[in-house]
Amino acid sequence: MQIHFAPAAAADAAILVIPVEKDALARTRWSGDATRRVAEAAATASRFSGEAGSTVELFVGEGEGEGEAVRHILLVGVGNHEGGWRKAGGAIVAKLLTSGATGATVDLSTLANAPSPAAVAKLAGTAAQRAWRHDVYRTKLAETSRPTLVSLTIAGAPDGTDAAWLHQDALTRGLALTRTLVAEPANIIYPETFVERVRADVEGLGLEITVLDEDAMRELGMGSLLSVSLGSAREARVLALRWNGAGEGDPDLALVGKGVTFDTGGISIKPAAGMEDMKWDMGGAGAVVGAMRSLATRKAKANVVGVCGLVENMPDGLATRPGDVVTSMSGQTIEVLNTDAEGRLVLADAITWTQRTFRPKTIVDLATLTGAMIVALGNEYGGLFSNDDDLAAQLAAAGLATDDKLWRFPLSATYDKLIDSPIADMKNVGPRGGGSITAAQFIKRFIDDGVKWAHLDIAGMVWSDKPGPGYDKGATGYGVKLLDRFVADNFEK
């Protein structure tokens, strides 16, 4: 969907969207008494008070006689704080996307108090993000279900909105890449095509791209990552996207994503019911490439590298068996007790390679890692683990600011002992209790001394069975806004 900015609302705007602050309907500037009376009556009947994201639709006659025109108006609540504008943008598109209308205009001149540029940009950004759909394979979509809204005009935006919108536009494009990768089925997106799709999408943005094939990984000793890929006909890949926005030198930050493009569980096979969901087990890698695209699009003044470990976990005669011992790139050995605990095996080698190749001071990994995280947090928060309190606080703050929320969990030597193996340096699973924590403790064993590290378990966040403010059912794009804000607040020069 296209976003346009105009100095004033056109007189013939097909649909006029009027933002209303919480409990401020009486202060709204109406175009005439007739509009005011109908709007106030409709608001009263609908118990509309300007709550963020609430809407009321009305039609007002303009003129006199048989040729009287009818104006289509949508009241949308923006609440009483800046975050409400994000909900309002999503609500507008949720209401109008398949309505038959092709365009609408948000008239900011009706507000008694001018909004900030950031608030207006959030409305526009969330509107564009909420309009994203993945209808590629729907050949018989009912006419009434087809998206029709192709443009949203923001009229009367304050000075400074253009700059704020550039950031939101970059986020929107990053989110679109992430959601597309997550939504595509596993016969379309697998390690090789993931790389191809990303390479094509970021072309010309100035990202330095490195790709490792299986031969290169074997030479590097990536026995942990490759053990996951043994049962698949699809070869594994490691993808790195490097952005030097602050000049030459090692990146200050590395983002590392789990990219299991489909996860059967391997020999420790998952139940059949719901296994189709495992096409989005690459949501961590999806978030990393979406965030890197956003940073490059807006020319972020930071040095960041994004690394994705890409595999498909399938069972066949060559697949890793429960009880096998594999050697990671770090030299540490791992007893694989459960081949469905594969994401940590991928991250182990991806993180080791990232540290040896790029020498970052800080690492944040993202992974749809454990079902235990969904049991603990449902679909409301991602799990946060860290070896550094300041880093954890920075990520939590970025999550609150973007609504990609995080909740911190503990790490300790007591949990670490639960993954000691009697025949290897460690085993890849601990007991049933504390499963998300022991998974994080496993990853922590591959972090070099002196490196700040955080692990985000986002298993419940990359896919949603219900719409949210900025997305419909399906791929959410969780993590892109979080990482972008984290970089902007803590790493940009």
Number of strands: 19
Alpha plus pi helix count: 14
Approximate strand percentage:
15-25%
Distance between the termini: 32 Å
Q: Which stretches of 5+ consecutive residues score pLDDT under 50?
A: none
Q: What is the share of helical residues?
A: 25-40%
Strand-pairing-aware structural class: alpha/beta
Main β-sheet description: 8 strands, mixed
Gyration radius over CA: 25 Å
Task: Identify the overall geometry.
Answer: elongated
Spatial strand order of the main sheet? 7-8-10-9-13-17-14-15
Provide mean pLDDT, rounded: 96
Could you characterize the architecture of this molecule?
The protein is an alpha/beta fold. Helix content is 34%, strand content 22%.
Give a topology summary:
Elements: E1 2-6, E2 15-21, H1 33-45, E3 55-62, E4 69-79, H2 83-96, E5 103-107, H3 117-130, E6 151-155, H4 161-183, H5 191-201, E7 208-212, H6 214-220, H7 223-229, E8 237-244, E9 253-263, H8 283-297, E10 303-313, E11 324-327, E12 333-336, H9 343-358, E13 362-367, H10 371-377, E14 382-386, H11 389-402, E15 406-408, H12 413-416, E16 426-427, H13 435-444, E17 452-457, E18 463-464, E19 474-475, H14 480-490
Parallel strand pairs: 1-6, 2-4, 2-5, 5-6, 9-10, 9-13, 12-16, 13-17, 14-15
Antiparallel strand pairs: 3-4, 7-8, 8-10, 11-12, 14-17, 18-19
Helix pairs in contact: 2-3, 3-4, 4-8, 7-9, 8-14, 9-13, 11-14
Compose a concise summary of this entry.
Helix content is 34%, strand content 22%.
Features of the shown structure:
22% strand, 34% helix, eight-stranded mixed sheet, six-stranded mixed sheet
